[in-house]
Amino acid sequence: MDHKKVVIYARVSSREQEREGFSIPAQLKLLKEYALKNGFQIVQEYSDAETAKKAGRTNYNAMLEYLKANPEVKTVLVEKTDRLYRNFKDYVTLEDYDLEVHLVKEGSIISKNSKSHDKFIHGIKVLMAKNYIDNLSEEISKGLHEGLEQGYWPFQPPYGYLRGAKKSLIIDKSRILFVRRAFELFATGKYSLRKLAEQLFIDGYYYKGERPKITQSVLEAMLKNVIYVGQMNCNGIIYQGKHPPLVSRDIFDKAQLAFLKVDKSKVRKNFDFLYPGIVKCGVCGYSFCGERQKKRNIYYRCSHFDRSCPNTAYISEKQLTQSFRMHLKRIGLDKDLYELVKYSLKECLGDEQEYHKSEVERINSETEQCKEILKKMYLDQVNGVLDYAMWVNLKNEYEVKLSRLNAELQRHTIANTNFLDTGLKILDLCSKASLPATELSENEVAQIVRATYLNVTKDKKVKMVFKEPFATIEKLIKFAKKEIAEIGLSEFKSAIISSKDKCIESIKKEPEGSDFNGSICFKWWRLTYSLKLTNCQSMA
Protein backbone atom coordinates (compact mmCIF):
# COMPACT_ATOMS: atom_id res chain seq x y z
CA MET A 1 0.00 0.00 0.00
CA ASP A 2 1.43 3.35 -1.07
CA HIS A 3 1.24 6.14 1.45
CA LYS A 4 0.52 9.68 0.34
CA LYS A 5 3.76 11.65 0.27
CA VAL A 6 3.69 14.95 2.14
CA VAL A 7 5.99 17.75 3.24
CA ILE A 8 5.57 19.58 6.54
CA TYR A 9 6.35 23.22 7.25
CA ALA A 10 6.66 25.17 10.52
CA ARG A 11 7.40 28.83 11.17
CA VAL A 12 7.69 31.26 14.07
CA SER A 13 7.78 35.00 13.54
CA SER A 14 8.16 36.49 17.03
CA ARG A 15 9.50 35.82 20.50
CA GLU A 16 6.00 35.14 21.75
CA GLN A 17 5.61 32.25 19.32
CA GLU A 18 8.77 30.64 20.63
CA ARG A 19 7.07 29.97 23.92
CA GLU A 20 5.86 26.46 24.75
CA GLY A 21 3.08 25.44 22.40
CA PHE A 22 4.11 27.78 19.59
CA SER A 23 7.73 26.79 19.01
CA ILE A 24 8.95 25.04 15.89
CA PRO A 25 9.42 21.70 17.74
CA ALA A 26 5.83 21.93 19.01
CA GLN A 27 4.54 22.57 15.49
CA LEU A 28 6.58 19.75 13.97
CA LYS A 29 5.38 17.35 16.66
CA LEU A 30 1.75 18.22 15.90
CA LEU A 31 2.26 17.75 12.17
CA LYS A 32 4.08 14.43 12.55
CA GLU A 33 1.30 13.08 14.79
CA TYR A 34 -1.26 14.18 12.19
CA ALA A 35 0.69 12.48 9.40
CA LEU A 36 0.99 9.25 11.39
CA LYS A 37 -2.72 9.28 12.21
CA ASN A 38 -3.68 9.69 8.55
CA GLY A 39 -1.12 7.29 7.12
CA PHE A 40 0.95 9.95 5.35
CA GLN A 41 4.62 9.54 4.47
CA ILE A 42 6.69 12.61 5.36
CA VAL A 43 9.33 13.01 2.67
CA GLN A 44 10.67 16.42 3.72
CA GLU A 45 10.30 18.82 6.63
CA TYR A 46 11.05 22.54 6.60
CA SER A 47 11.05 25.28 9.21
CA ASP A 48 11.84 28.99 9.40
CA ALA A 49 12.43 31.30 12.35
CA GLU A 50 11.95 35.04 11.90
CA THR A 51 12.66 37.89 14.26
CA ALA A 52 11.71 41.56 14.31
CA LYS A 53 15.24 42.47 13.20
CA LYS A 54 15.68 39.81 10.55
CA ALA A 55 12.88 38.46 8.41
CA GLY A 56 13.39 35.73 5.86
CA ARG A 57 12.10 32.31 4.85
CA THR A 58 14.99 30.48 3.28
CA ASN A 59 13.50 27.07 3.93
CA TYR A 60 10.08 28.14 2.66
CA ASN A 61 11.67 28.89 -0.70
CA ALA A 62 13.57 25.61 -0.50
CA MET A 63 10.25 23.83 0.01
CA LEU A 64 8.84 25.45 -3.12
CA GLU A 65 11.90 24.32 -5.09
CA TYR A 66 11.43 20.77 -3.81
CA LEU A 67 7.74 20.73 -4.73
CA LYS A 68 8.59 22.05 -8.18
CA ALA A 69 11.24 19.36 -8.69
CA ASN A 70 8.98 16.60 -7.30
CA PRO A 71 5.52 17.07 -8.84
CA GLU A 72 4.33 13.77 -7.42
CA VAL A 73 4.30 15.40 -3.95
CA LYS A 74 1.10 17.44 -3.82
CA THR A 75 0.36 17.73 -0.10
CA VAL A 76 1.64 20.22 2.48
CA LEU A 77 0.92 19.96 6.21
CA VAL A 78 1.04 23.14 8.27
CA GLU A 79 -0.21 24.10 11.73
CA LYS A 80 -2.31 27.11 10.74
CA THR A 81 -2.76 29.31 7.71
CA ASP A 82 -0.67 32.15 9.09
CA ARG A 83 2.27 29.76 9.43
CA LEU A 84 2.22 29.26 5.64
CA TYR A 85 0.92 32.46 4.04
CA ARG A 86 2.59 35.77 4.78
CA ASN A 87 1.20 37.71 1.82
CA PHE A 88 -1.04 37.28 -1.18
CA LYS A 89 1.90 36.33 -3.39
CA ASP A 90 2.38 33.22 -1.22
CA TYR A 91 -1.29 32.34 -1.66
CA VAL A 92 -1.16 32.68 -5.45
CA THR A 93 2.16 30.82 -5.72
CA LEU A 94 0.92 27.80 -3.78
CA GLU A 95 -2.33 27.82 -5.73
CA ASP A 96 -0.31 27.61 -8.97
CA TYR A 97 1.43 24.50 -7.60
CA ASP A 98 -1.99 22.78 -7.42
CA LEU A 99 -1.38 21.66 -3.84
CA GLU A 100 -3.57 20.19 -1.14
CA VAL A 101 -2.88 22.19 2.04
CA HIS A 102 -3.86 20.66 5.39
CA LEU A 103 -4.40 23.29 8.10
CA VAL A 104 -4.11 20.91 11.02
CA LYS A 105 -5.17 23.11 13.95
CA GLU A 106 -8.02 24.61 11.96
CA GLY A 107 -9.27 21.22 10.83
CA SER A 108 -9.62 22.22 7.18
CA ILE A 109 -8.14 21.28 3.81
CA ILE A 110 -7.72 23.78 0.97
CA SER A 111 -7.30 22.56 -2.61
CA LYS A 112 -8.57 23.20 -6.12
CA ASN A 113 -11.56 21.00 -5.24
CA SER A 114 -12.65 23.17 -2.30
CA LYS A 115 -16.20 24.51 -2.53
CA SER A 116 -16.62 27.85 -4.24
CA HIS A 117 -18.10 29.57 -1.21
CA ASP A 118 -15.16 28.40 0.92
CA LYS A 119 -12.79 30.00 -1.57
CA PHE A 120 -14.85 33.17 -1.65
CA ILE A 121 -14.98 33.47 2.14
CA HIS A 122 -11.24 32.82 2.07
CA GLY A 123 -10.76 35.71 -0.32
CA ILE A 124 -13.02 38.10 1.57
CA LYS A 125 -11.23 37.53 4.85
CA VAL A 126 -7.84 37.74 3.12
CA LEU A 127 -8.91 41.14 1.90
CA MET A 128 -10.04 42.61 5.20
CA ALA A 129 -8.28 41.06 8.18
CA LYS A 130 -4.68 42.11 7.65
CA ASN A 131 -5.59 45.72 8.40
CA TYR A 132 -6.33 45.04 12.06
CA ILE A 133 -3.50 42.57 12.45
CA ASP A 134 -0.88 44.85 10.93
CA ASN A 135 -1.98 47.90 12.90
CA LEU A 136 -1.75 45.98 16.16
CA SER A 137 1.28 43.85 15.33
CA GLU A 138 3.40 46.76 14.14
CA GLU A 139 2.89 48.36 17.54
CA ILE A 140 3.69 45.28 19.59
CA SER A 141 5.93 42.82 17.73
CA LYS A 142 9.07 44.93 17.35
CA GLY A 143 9.74 45.10 21.07
CA LEU A 144 10.54 48.81 21.03
CA HIS A 145 7.65 50.34 22.88
CA GLU A 146 8.72 49.53 26.39
CA GLY A 147 11.54 52.04 26.09
CA LEU A 148 9.25 54.62 24.50
CA GLU A 149 6.72 54.28 27.27
CA GLN A 150 9.48 54.92 29.79
CA GLY A 151 10.55 58.05 27.94
CA TYR A 152 13.61 56.68 26.08
CA TRP A 153 14.23 56.83 22.32
CA PRO A 154 15.22 53.31 21.18
CA PHE A 155 16.26 54.27 17.64
CA GLN A 156 19.28 56.08 16.25
CA PRO A 157 19.68 59.50 17.92
CA PRO A 158 18.28 62.29 15.74
CA TYR A 159 20.45 65.17 14.59
CA GLY A 160 21.34 67.33 17.61
CA TYR A 161 21.44 64.44 20.09
CA LEU A 162 23.88 61.74 21.15
CA ARG A 163 23.30 58.43 22.90
CA GLY A 164 23.76 58.69 26.63
CA ALA A 165 23.66 56.12 29.40
CA LYS A 166 20.80 53.62 29.53
CA LYS A 167 19.41 54.54 26.07
CA SER A 168 18.93 58.17 27.06
CA LEU A 169 19.46 61.08 24.68
CA ILE A 170 21.87 63.86 25.55
CA ILE A 171 22.50 67.13 23.70
CA ASP A 172 25.14 67.16 20.98
CA LYS A 173 26.78 70.51 21.72
CA SER A 174 28.40 70.63 18.28
CA ARG A 175 25.01 70.58 16.54
CA ILE A 176 22.57 72.27 18.91
CA LEU A 177 23.14 75.73 17.41
CA PHE A 178 22.27 74.49 13.92
CA VAL A 179 18.94 73.02 15.10
CA ARG A 180 17.94 76.08 17.10
CA ARG A 181 18.87 78.51 14.32
CA ALA A 182 16.89 76.50 11.77
CA PHE A 183 13.77 76.61 13.94
CA GLU A 184 14.17 80.29 14.77
CA LEU A 185 14.49 81.37 11.14
CA PHE A 186 11.71 79.15 9.83
CA ALA A 187 9.33 80.23 12.62
CA THR A 188 9.43 83.78 11.23
CA GLY A 189 7.46 82.57 8.20
CA LYS A 190 9.80 84.41 5.83
CA TYR A 191 11.64 81.38 4.47
CA SER A 192 10.85 78.51 2.16
CA LEU A 193 12.76 75.29 2.81
CA ARG A 194 15.07 76.01 -0.11
CA LYS A 195 15.83 79.56 1.04
CA LEU A 196 16.28 78.43 4.64
CA ALA A 197 18.84 75.78 3.62
CA GLU A 198 20.73 78.41 1.65
CA GLN A 199 20.59 80.98 4.48
CA LEU A 200 21.92 78.52 7.05
CA PHE A 201 24.82 77.69 4.75
CA ILE A 202 25.58 81.37 4.06
CA ASP A 203 25.48 82.17 7.79
CA GLY A 204 28.05 79.46 8.50
CA TYR A 205 25.68 76.86 10.02
CA TYR A 206 26.98 73.66 8.47
CA TYR A 207 24.91 70.48 8.65
CA LYS A 208 27.67 67.87 8.47
CA GLY A 209 31.32 67.92 7.53
CA GLU A 210 30.87 65.80 4.42
CA ARG A 211 27.59 67.57 3.57
CA PRO A 212 27.70 71.15 4.86
CA LYS A 213 24.47 72.25 3.17
CA ILE A 214 21.34 70.48 4.43
CA THR A 215 18.87 69.14 1.87
CA GLN A 216 15.27 70.35 1.82
CA SER A 217 13.79 66.93 2.63
CA VAL A 218 16.05 66.44 5.67
CA LEU A 219 15.35 69.99 6.82
CA GLU A 220 11.59 69.49 6.56
CA ALA A 221 11.75 66.26 8.58
CA MET A 222 13.80 68.03 11.25
CA LEU A 223 11.43 70.98 11.55
CA LYS A 224 8.41 68.66 11.92
CA ASN A 225 10.00 66.32 14.46
CA VAL A 226 8.44 66.66 17.94
CA ILE A 227 11.53 65.10 19.49
CA TYR A 228 13.07 68.59 19.62
CA VAL A 229 10.39 69.70 22.12
CA GLY A 230 10.86 66.69 24.40
CA GLN A 231 8.30 64.34 22.87
CA MET A 232 8.63 61.25 20.68
CA ASN A 233 6.46 60.16 17.75
CA CYS A 234 6.40 56.48 16.87
CA ASN A 235 3.85 55.28 14.32
CA GLY A 236 1.58 58.19 15.12
CA ILE A 237 1.65 57.70 18.89
CA ILE A 238 3.15 60.54 20.93
CA TYR A 239 5.23 59.63 23.98
CA GLN A 240 6.65 62.00 26.58
CA GLY A 241 10.43 61.76 26.50
CA LYS A 242 12.94 62.18 29.30
CA HIS A 243 15.48 63.89 27.05
CA PRO A 244 16.09 67.67 27.18
CA PRO A 245 14.27 69.70 24.47
CA LEU A 246 16.35 71.76 22.04
CA VAL A 247 13.67 74.35 21.20
CA SER A 248 10.70 75.83 23.03
CA ARG A 249 7.13 74.77 22.35
CA ASP A 250 6.33 78.31 21.22
CA ILE A 251 9.05 78.31 18.53
CA PHE A 252 8.08 74.80 17.42
CA ASP A 253 4.38 75.72 17.04
CA LYS A 254 5.28 78.83 15.04
CA ALA A 255 7.39 76.66 12.74
CA GLN A 256 4.42 74.35 12.12
CA LEU A 257 2.25 77.37 11.26
CA ALA A 258 4.96 78.49 8.84
CA PHE A 259 4.56 75.18 6.99
CA LEU A 260 0.95 76.08 6.24
CA LYS A 261 2.14 79.24 4.55
CA VAL A 262 4.73 77.32 2.55
CA ASP A 263 2.20 74.68 1.48
CA LYS A 264 -0.29 77.32 0.30
CA SER A 265 2.38 78.82 -1.92
CA LYS A 266 2.84 75.51 -3.73
CA VAL A 267 0.04 76.12 -6.21
CA ARG A 268 0.38 73.73 -9.13
CA LYS A 269 0.66 75.31 -12.54
CA ASN A 270 -1.21 72.35 -13.98
CA PHE A 271 -4.07 72.50 -11.48
CA ASP A 272 -6.64 72.38 -14.29
CA PHE A 273 -5.31 69.06 -15.63
CA LEU A 274 -6.99 65.89 -14.35
CA TYR A 275 -4.07 63.46 -14.61
CA PRO A 276 -0.77 65.27 -13.95
CA GLY A 277 2.11 62.89 -13.27
CA ILE A 278 -0.05 59.75 -13.44
CA VAL A 279 0.59 58.38 -16.93
CA LYS A 280 4.05 57.10 -17.88
CA CYS A 281 5.31 56.52 -21.38
CA GLY A 282 5.22 52.82 -22.25
CA VAL A 283 8.34 53.23 -24.40
CA CYS A 284 10.82 55.36 -22.43
CA GLY A 285 9.22 55.55 -18.97
CA TYR A 286 9.03 59.35 -18.81
CA SER A 287 5.86 61.02 -17.52
CA PHE A 288 3.14 62.24 -19.84
CA CYS A 289 2.59 65.98 -19.51
CA GLY A 290 -0.60 67.87 -20.27
CA GLU A 291 -0.96 70.94 -22.41
CA ARG A 292 -3.91 73.03 -23.48
CA GLN A 293 -4.47 73.49 -27.20
CA LYS A 294 -6.66 76.15 -28.78
CA LYS A 295 -7.43 77.38 -25.25
CA ARG A 296 -9.98 74.59 -24.73
CA ASN A 297 -8.89 71.02 -25.33
CA ILE A 298 -6.29 69.30 -23.13
CA TYR A 299 -3.91 66.73 -24.57
CA TYR A 300 -1.15 64.59 -23.04
CA ARG A 301 2.04 63.27 -24.58
CA CYS A 302 5.44 61.94 -23.49
CA SER A 303 7.58 64.68 -21.98
CA HIS A 304 10.60 63.11 -23.71
CA PHE A 305 9.11 63.33 -27.20
CA ASP A 306 11.53 66.03 -28.38
CA ARG A 307 14.58 63.91 -27.64
CA SER A 308 14.96 60.21 -28.29
CA CYS A 309 11.48 58.78 -27.55
CA PRO A 310 9.57 57.67 -30.68
CA ASN A 311 6.24 57.82 -28.82
CA THR A 312 5.10 61.22 -30.12
CA ALA A 313 1.35 60.59 -30.33
CA TYR A 314 -1.05 62.76 -28.35
CA ILE A 315 -4.00 61.48 -26.34
CA SER A 316 -6.82 63.77 -25.30
CA GLU A 317 -7.93 64.07 -21.69
CA LYS A 318 -11.37 62.83 -22.72
CA GLN A 319 -9.83 59.71 -24.26
CA LEU A 320 -7.81 59.13 -21.10
CA THR A 321 -10.94 59.46 -18.98
CA GLN A 322 -12.77 56.95 -21.17
CA SER A 323 -9.89 54.47 -20.85
CA PHE A 324 -9.85 54.92 -17.08
CA ARG A 325 -13.62 54.32 -16.89
CA MET A 326 -13.09 50.96 -18.59
CA HIS A 327 -10.24 50.01 -16.24
CA LEU A 328 -12.15 51.05 -13.10
CA LYS A 329 -14.89 48.56 -13.98
CA ARG A 330 -12.36 45.88 -13.07
CA ILE A 331 -12.63 46.88 -9.40
CA GLY A 332 -16.25 48.05 -9.51
CA LEU A 333 -18.57 46.43 -6.98
CA ASP A 334 -22.12 46.24 -8.31
CA LYS A 335 -25.04 46.21 -5.88
CA ASP A 336 -25.08 42.44 -5.34
CA LEU A 337 -21.35 42.04 -4.80
CA TYR A 338 -21.25 45.18 -2.67
CA GLU A 339 -23.84 43.76 -0.26
CA LEU A 340 -22.04 40.43 -0.15
CA VAL A 341 -18.69 42.01 0.69
CA LYS A 342 -20.33 44.38 3.16
CA TYR A 343 -21.96 41.42 4.92
CA SER A 344 -18.64 39.62 5.23
CA LEU A 345 -16.94 42.77 6.46
CA LYS A 346 -19.56 43.29 9.17
CA GLU A 347 -19.15 39.71 10.36
CA CYS A 348 -15.40 40.18 10.59
CA LEU A 349 -15.74 43.55 12.23
CA GLY A 350 -18.14 42.19 14.82
CA ASP A 351 -15.57 39.72 16.13
CA GLU A 352 -12.81 42.31 16.20
CA GLN A 353 -15.01 44.87 17.92
CA GLU A 354 -15.92 42.30 20.57
CA TYR A 355 -12.23 41.66 21.20
CA HIS A 356 -11.46 45.38 21.08
CA LYS A 357 -14.21 46.13 23.59
CA SER A 358 -13.01 43.49 26.04
CA GLU A 359 -9.41 44.70 25.80
CA VAL A 360 -10.41 48.33 26.34
CA GLU A 361 -12.47 47.32 29.39
CA ARG A 362 -9.51 45.38 30.79
CA ILE A 363 -7.11 48.28 30.23
CA ASN A 364 -9.50 50.79 31.78
CA SER A 365 -10.03 48.52 34.78
CA GLU A 366 -6.28 48.12 35.35
CA THR A 367 -5.82 51.87 34.92
CA GLU A 368 -8.37 52.64 37.63
CA GLN A 369 -6.73 50.11 39.94
CA CYS A 370 -3.35 51.80 39.43
CA LYS A 371 -4.83 55.20 40.18
CA GLU A 372 -6.46 53.93 43.36
CA ILE A 373 -3.21 52.33 44.50
CA LEU A 374 -1.30 55.56 43.81
CA LYS A 375 -3.86 57.53 45.79
CA LYS A 376 -3.70 55.13 48.72
CA MET A 377 0.12 55.08 48.70
CA TYR A 378 0.19 58.88 48.77
CA LEU A 379 -2.10 58.99 51.80
CA ASP A 380 -0.01 56.31 53.53
CA GLN A 381 3.13 58.35 52.90
CA VAL A 382 1.52 61.54 54.22
CA ASN A 383 0.31 59.72 57.34
CA GLY A 384 3.74 58.21 57.98
CA VAL A 385 2.65 54.65 57.23
CA LEU A 386 4.86 54.38 54.14
CA ASP A 387 8.53 55.35 54.05
CA TYR A 388 9.28 58.21 51.64
CA ALA A 389 11.97 56.35 49.69
CA MET A 390 9.70 53.34 49.36
CA TRP A 391 6.86 55.59 48.23
CA VAL A 392 9.04 57.15 45.51
CA ASN A 393 10.05 53.74 44.16
CA LEU A 394 6.50 52.40 44.17
CA LYS A 395 5.12 55.61 42.69
CA ASN A 396 7.55 55.48 39.77
CA GLU A 397 6.74 51.82 39.20
CA TYR A 398 3.00 52.48 38.97
CA GLU A 399 3.49 55.62 36.87
CA VAL A 400 5.40 53.53 34.34
CA LYS A 401 2.60 50.96 34.38
CA LEU A 402 0.03 53.71 33.79
CA SER A 403 2.06 54.96 30.85
CA ARG A 404 2.18 51.47 29.38
CA LEU A 405 -1.55 51.01 29.80
CA ASN A 406 -2.22 54.34 28.12
CA ALA A 407 0.02 53.44 25.17
CA GLU A 408 -1.67 50.03 24.89
CA LEU A 409 -5.07 51.74 24.85
CA GLN A 410 -3.89 54.01 22.03
CA ARG A 411 -2.69 51.00 20.05
CA HIS A 412 -6.06 49.28 20.25
CA THR A 413 -7.90 52.48 19.42
CA ILE A 414 -5.74 53.13 16.35
CA ALA A 415 -5.99 49.54 15.11
CA ASN A 416 -9.76 49.42 15.55
CA THR A 417 -10.40 52.83 14.01
CA ASN A 418 -8.09 52.29 11.06
CA PHE A 419 -9.73 48.97 10.28
CA LEU A 420 -13.23 50.43 10.21
CA ASP A 421 -12.30 53.56 8.29
CA THR A 422 -10.24 51.71 5.71
CA GLY A 423 -12.84 49.01 5.13
CA LEU A 424 -15.67 51.48 4.57
CA LYS A 425 -13.59 53.70 2.31
CA ILE A 426 -12.58 50.73 0.19
CA LEU A 427 -16.19 49.61 -0.23
CA ASP A 428 -17.36 53.11 -1.06
CA LEU A 429 -14.62 53.66 -3.62
CA CYS A 430 -15.22 50.33 -5.36
CA SER A 431 -18.95 50.99 -5.41
CA LYS A 432 -18.38 54.35 -7.09
CA ALA A 433 -16.04 52.75 -9.60
CA SER A 434 -18.93 50.68 -10.97
CA LEU A 435 -21.18 53.68 -11.68
CA PRO A 436 -22.06 54.49 -15.31
CA ALA A 437 -20.57 57.53 -17.03
CA THR A 438 -23.76 59.51 -16.50
CA GLU A 439 -23.34 59.22 -12.72
CA LEU A 440 -19.56 59.54 -12.43
CA SER A 441 -18.02 62.85 -13.44
CA GLU A 442 -14.58 63.27 -14.97
CA ASN A 443 -13.28 64.77 -11.72
CA GLU A 444 -14.58 61.78 -9.76
CA VAL A 445 -12.91 59.41 -12.21
CA ALA A 446 -9.62 61.26 -11.68
CA GLN A 447 -10.00 61.07 -7.89
CA ILE A 448 -10.60 57.31 -7.98
CA VAL A 449 -7.67 56.78 -10.35
CA ARG A 450 -5.32 58.70 -8.04
CA ALA A 451 -6.49 56.63 -5.07
CA THR A 452 -6.19 53.23 -6.73
CA TYR A 453 -3.46 53.22 -9.37
CA LEU A 454 -0.02 51.71 -8.95
CA ASN A 455 1.18 52.18 -12.50
CA VAL A 456 -0.35 53.63 -15.68
CA THR A 457 1.45 53.41 -19.01
CA LYS A 458 0.52 54.59 -22.49
CA ASP A 459 2.00 53.15 -25.65
CA LYS A 460 -0.56 51.99 -28.18
CA LYS A 461 -3.09 51.50 -25.40
CA VAL A 462 -3.57 52.77 -21.87
CA LYS A 463 -2.61 50.05 -19.37
CA MET A 464 -3.42 50.33 -15.67
CA VAL A 465 -2.14 48.30 -12.73
CA PHE A 466 -3.92 48.71 -9.40
CA LYS A 467 -2.16 48.97 -6.06
CA GLU A 468 -3.19 46.97 -3.01
CA PRO A 469 -5.83 46.37 -1.80
CA PHE A 470 -7.46 47.04 -5.16
CA ALA A 471 -5.30 44.54 -7.07
CA THR A 472 -6.69 41.80 -4.83
CA ILE A 473 -10.22 43.20 -5.08
CA GLU A 474 -9.91 42.85 -8.84
CA LYS A 475 -8.98 39.17 -8.48
CA LEU A 476 -11.75 38.66 -5.94
CA ILE A 477 -14.43 40.18 -8.21
CA LYS A 478 -13.23 38.17 -11.19
CA PHE A 479 -13.42 34.95 -9.17
CA ALA A 480 -16.86 35.78 -7.69
CA LYS A 481 -18.37 36.61 -11.07
CA LYS A 482 -17.08 33.35 -12.48
CA GLU A 483 -18.66 31.33 -9.65
CA ILE A 484 -21.94 33.26 -9.88
CA ALA A 485 -22.07 32.54 -13.60
CA GLU A 486 -21.73 28.82 -12.86
CA ILE A 487 -24.12 28.32 -9.92
CA GLY A 488 -26.17 31.51 -9.80
CA LEU A 489 -26.16 34.46 -7.42
CA SER A 490 -28.83 33.13 -5.07
CA GLU A 491 -27.11 29.80 -4.45
CA PHE A 492 -23.72 31.45 -4.18
CA LYS A 493 -24.95 34.02 -1.66
CA SER A 494 -26.82 31.38 0.35
CA ALA A 495 -23.72 29.20 0.58
CA ILE A 496 -21.64 32.09 1.88
CA ILE A 497 -24.17 33.12 4.53
CA SER A 498 -24.76 29.55 5.71
CA SER A 499 -21.03 29.03 6.24
CA LYS A 500 -20.79 31.88 8.75
CA ASP A 501 -21.55 29.94 11.94
CA LYS A 502 -19.15 27.13 11.10
CA CYS A 503 -16.40 29.65 10.48
CA ILE A 504 -17.02 31.50 13.75
CA GLU A 505 -17.17 28.24 15.70
CA SER A 506 -13.75 27.19 14.41
CA ILE A 507 -12.33 30.45 15.71
CA LYS A 508 -13.74 29.91 19.19
CA LYS A 509 -11.73 26.71 19.41
CA GLU A 510 -8.44 28.58 18.94
CA PRO A 511 -6.43 28.38 22.18
CA GLU A 512 -5.28 31.41 24.13
CA GLY A 513 -1.79 32.77 23.70
CA SER A 514 -1.47 32.70 19.93
CA ASP A 515 -0.12 35.53 17.78
CA PHE A 516 -0.94 39.01 19.02
CA ASN A 517 -2.06 37.72 22.41
CA GLY A 518 -4.78 35.56 20.88
CA SER A 519 -6.69 38.63 19.82
CA ILE A 520 -7.12 38.09 16.15
CA CYS A 521 -9.85 35.69 15.01
CA PHE A 522 -8.86 32.78 12.84
CA LYS A 523 -11.58 33.63 10.42
CA TRP A 524 -9.55 36.75 9.63
CA TRP A 525 -5.98 35.58 9.46
CA ARG A 526 -6.30 32.07 8.08
CA LEU A 527 -7.71 33.63 4.91
CA THR A 528 -5.91 36.94 4.83
CA TYR A 529 -2.23 37.08 4.15
CA SER A 530 -2.07 39.31 1.13
CA LEU A 531 -3.02 42.86 1.71
CA LYS A 532 -1.20 45.77 3.27
CA LEU A 533 -4.12 47.97 4.19
CA THR A 534 -2.38 49.69 7.10
CA ASN A 535 -0.61 52.23 4.96
CA CYS A 536 -3.21 52.98 2.28
CA GLN A 537 -2.15 56.58 2.17
CA SER A 538 -4.33 57.20 -0.80
CA MET A 539 -7.33 56.42 1.38
CA ALA A 540 -6.31 58.76 4.17
Secondary structure: elements and pairs:
Blueprint: E1 5-12, H1 24-38, E2 41-49, H2 58-69, E3 75-78, H3 81-84, H4 88-96, E4 100-103, E5 108-110, H5 116-140, H6 145-149, E6 161-163, E7 169-171, H7 176-187, H8 193-202, H9 216-223, E8 231-234, E9 237-240, H10 249-264, E10 279-281, E11 288-293, E12 297-302, E13 315-316, H11 317-328, H12 335-382, H13 388-433, H14 442-452, E14 453-458, E15 462-466, H15 470-487, H16 489-498, H17 500-508, H18 522-525
Parallel strand pairs: 1-2, 1-3, 3-4, 10-14
Antiparallel strand pairs: 4-5, 6-7, 8-9, 11-12, 12-13, 14-15
Helix pairs in contact: 5-12, 5-13, 5-15, 5-16, 7-8, 7-10, 11-14, 12-13, 15-16
Task: Describe what you observe in this structure.
The protein is an alpha/beta fold. The protein is 51% helix and 13% strand. Helix 5 (116-140) runs antiparallel to helix 13 (388-433) and helix 5 crosses helix 16 (489-498). The radius of gyration is 28 Å and the shape is globular. The model is unreliable at 15-21, 51-55, 264-271 and 511-540 (pLDDT under 50).
Please tally the β strands and state the result. 15
CATH architecture of the domain at 5-114: 3-Layer(aba) Sandwich
Poorly predicted parts = 15-21, 51-55, 264-271, 511-540
CATH homology superfamily name of the domain at 5-114? Resolvase, N-terminal catalytic domain
Q: Helix content range of the residues, please?
A: 40-55%
Query: Taking Cα atoms only, what radius of gyration do you get, to the nearest Å?
Result: 28 Å
What average pLDDT do the residues reach? 77
Total number of helices: 18
Q: Can you summarize the main beta sheet?
A: 5 strands, mixed
